[in-house]
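ARCHIVE CARD
CATEGORY: sequence design from structure
SOURCE FIELD: tokenized fold
FIELD CONTENT:
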């Protein structure tokens, strides 16, 4: 694996190591997804960062399901998350569920009460909000703030035993109602929720809040560096408070970095889930989706995604990365890896009138111009062929070097061909081009006469393989208000024709379609009978350094 270089996070870790803050402990990070949806490309950023940081220090990285919220989680997502992390090329050290720590979290809350650092409050969520104060005014103390330890212990136990309804009581940390940081104004750390949990069933009817649970999860696993996104920066004092209040030895350090935002991409599990549920996309793994399952099916490679995550680096300020950089990384990775094939997306028939009726031959074409190691293949050529409709113009515009009446072009790997006649149907649609070839000009031969300015691709009509090709544009486009909206034209289906060798493809195989772009045989839909390809990325890069 490539060296990840250094960044401000590594600098902080270096300093901790120098100062011996974690004497005897290996550097330990974690990726802590909430199992409430499929992972997206933003999560890939966090996965790469956590795993490569652990690798750099010869440490550990855990995969931990942050499943402390009983109502939103689903086991379907658990399997998908593990598959996605493995697909990216990483293997976790420990695999944990935060809900396995509910007993310890409860014990810690009892300990906070004993230490006079937590109390049971009767306020509703609304009242807590209304007494929290503002950025300029301190909050008001709860009338229950100074209950005795004994009373708090009894009430908290009763909360656990199911004596109260949802919302009737909460456990709050006793910190500082005048703190300039509103997160520190006696935050709620336990709430009542009579809800079944996918892991613990009906054992609990009180559940810990994220800001209380997360530092404990990290600390229990002996995580040393808890890397999270910037919106948790204001929560760090609370993270530290929880562990300090319990005198936790060698508490983990929370470090924040900027979350990844991409142009033309919406990265919110909730929003993506809505698209799946209302049928706007085929599923979580629709090739247009920014989910890891989607980009995998789209044909992106884990190498390209990791390269992308490395190139964007880690920042301390939020910004939006141009999605064309990700596409650039995909092209760079596929460029020398995949073989080329000729495919016609919108076929127009060509008849070579001076080519013998019953003759046929094979021409040899290199599989990858930039990588001779990939060898070559034989492609059938005969009197009837197809070309791309776009490669012909009856009245050529300026600098058009492809087919037009009277013009000669090279058919890739074969001959010079001249277009002589255009055949049309009754409505005036072009149905066929009648052309001639020059037998002297066969590719790879010794012809050194005139030159032509254009080379186009073609397929042999007799042996062509029908393909369904899905050509994509962005799933989201920017509306006038600057917000992203679903693009109604993000998928175009082409009834295409491919060269004979494409009869043999297996699902998941990638190719460059000559002059068109990179394509993958769809994992799910490509069968022996029906060949379905997804466009991975087009050939041209719009990304500028
Ligand atoms: P979403 O809002 O899409 O549901 P989330 O942050 O709620 O995302 P979690 O499952 O809680 O998703 O996230 C797991 C980890 O991935 C967290 O550490 C989170 O900070 C990180 N993460 C999520 N989105 C991004 C992103 N866009 N860029 C970088 N890291 C991210
Ligand atoms: Mg979340």
């Amino acid at each position: 694996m490539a060296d990840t270089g250094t960044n401000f996070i590594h600098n902080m870790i270096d300093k901790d190591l120098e100062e011996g803050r974690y004497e005897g402990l290996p550097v330990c990070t974690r990726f802590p997804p909430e199992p409430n949806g499929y992972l997206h490309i933003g999560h890939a950023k966090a996965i790469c960062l956590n795993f490569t940081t652990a690798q750099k220090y010869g440490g550990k990285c855990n995969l931990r399901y942050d499943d402390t919220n009983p109502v939103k989680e689903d086991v379907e997502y658990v399997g998908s998350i593990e598959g996605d992390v493995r697909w990216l090329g990483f293997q976790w050290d420990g695999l944990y569920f935060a809900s396995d720590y509910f007993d310890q979290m409860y014990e810690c809350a009892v300990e906070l009460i004993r230490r006079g650092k937590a109390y049971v409050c009767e306020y509703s969520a609304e009242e807590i909000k209304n007494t929290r104060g503002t950025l300029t005014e301190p909050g008001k103390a709860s009338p229950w703030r100074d209950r005795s330890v004994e009373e708090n212990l009894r009430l908290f136990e009763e909360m656990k035993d199911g004596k109260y309804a949802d919302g009737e009581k909460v456990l709050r940390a006793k910190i500082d109602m005048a703190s300039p940081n509103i997160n520190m104004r006696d935050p709620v750390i336990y709430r009542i929720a009579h809800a079944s949990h996918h892991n613990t069933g009906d054992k609990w009817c009180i559940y810990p809040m994220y800001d209380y649970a997360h530092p404990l999860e990290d600390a229990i696993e002996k995580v040393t560096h808890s890397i999270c996104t910037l919106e948790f920066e204001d929560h760090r004092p609370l993270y530290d408070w929880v562990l300090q209040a319990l005198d936790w030895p060698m508490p983990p350090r929370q470090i924040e970095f900027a979350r990844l935002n991409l142009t033309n991409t919406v990265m919110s599990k909730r929003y993506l889930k809505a698209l799946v549920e209302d049928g706007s996309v085929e599923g979580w793994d629709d090739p247009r989706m920014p989910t890891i399952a989607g980009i995998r099916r789209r044909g992106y490679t884990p190498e390209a995604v990791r390269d992308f995550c490395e190139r964007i680096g880690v920042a301390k300020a939020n910004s939006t990365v141009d999605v064309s950089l990700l596409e650039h990384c995909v092209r760079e990775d596929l460029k020398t890896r995949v073989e080329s094939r000729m495919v016609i997306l919108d076929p127009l028939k060509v008849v070579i009138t001076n080519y013998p009726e019953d003759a046929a031959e094979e021409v040899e074409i290199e599989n990858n111009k930039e990588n001779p190691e990939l060898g070559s293949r034989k492609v059938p050529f005969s009197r009837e062929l197809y070309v791309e409709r776009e490669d012909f113009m009856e009245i050529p515009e300026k600098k058009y070097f492809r087919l037009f009446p009277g013009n000669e072009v090279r058919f890739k790997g074969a001959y010079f061909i001249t277009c002589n006649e255009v055949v049309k149907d009754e409505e005036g649609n072009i149905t066929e081009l009648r052309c001639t070839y020059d037998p002297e000009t066969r590719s790879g031969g010794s012809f050194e006469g005139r030159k032509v300015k254009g080379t186009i691709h073609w397929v042999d009509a007799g042996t062509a393989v029908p393909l369904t090709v899905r050509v994509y544009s962005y799933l989201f486009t920017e509306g006038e208000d600057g917000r992203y909206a679903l693009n109604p034209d993000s998928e175009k289906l082409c009834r295409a024709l491919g060269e004979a060798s494409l009869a043999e493809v297996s699902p998941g195989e990638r190719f460059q379609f000559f002059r068109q772009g990179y394509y993958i045989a769809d994992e799910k839909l490509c069968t022996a009978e029906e060949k379905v390809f997804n466009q991975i990325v087009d050939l041209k890069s719009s990304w500028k350094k």
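CARD ANNOTATION: The chain has a mean pLDDT of 95. The chain has twelve helices and 29 strands.
SHELF: design records, drawer C
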